[in-house]
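Run log, item B.
One chain of 134 residues. Sequence copied directly from the ordering sheet:
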Amino acid sequence: MNKIEHIGIAVKDLDASCQLYEKLLGTAAYKQESVVSEGVNTAFFRTGEHKIELLAATVAASPIASFIEKRGEGIHHIAFDVDNIYAEMKRLRNEGFVLLNEEPKFGADNKLICFVHPKGTNGVLIELCQEIKK
C-alpha cells in the first residue's frame, strides 16, 4: 500500500454536506459523480495532498444508507492507493483478511476498488484503490 488515497465520509444530504465542507476546507469539490453499482453519489475535495470523499445514498438498499441507519453520518472508510489491486488482494487473502469483493470493481474517481471486511481490521472498513490507466 502506497499511501492513504482518501477518507470516505457517509452523509445524508450531499448538497448540504458539500456546502459545509467547502466552508470548512476553503475550497469547492473538484468532482461529483454517481456510482450506480454502489447506490451513491459522491463529491471529492482536495486539501493539500489529501482527499475527502463524501458519499450519499441514492437508494435505500445501498451500503451507505445502511451505514447511516446503524451508525449515523461520519467516517465510513479509509482508502489506500495500491499499484496492483489484484496482487494486493491476493496478499491480503494470504494474510487471512476477508475481502468483500471477489474481484475489483469500478469505483468513483477513475479507480478499481475492493473492500476489506472491517471485522478483521479493528472495525475499520478499508478500501483498496488502483487508478485505471488510460
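Observations after the first pass:
- The chain is about 25% helix and 40% strand.
- The chain has one domain: 3-131.
Flagged for discussion on Thursday.
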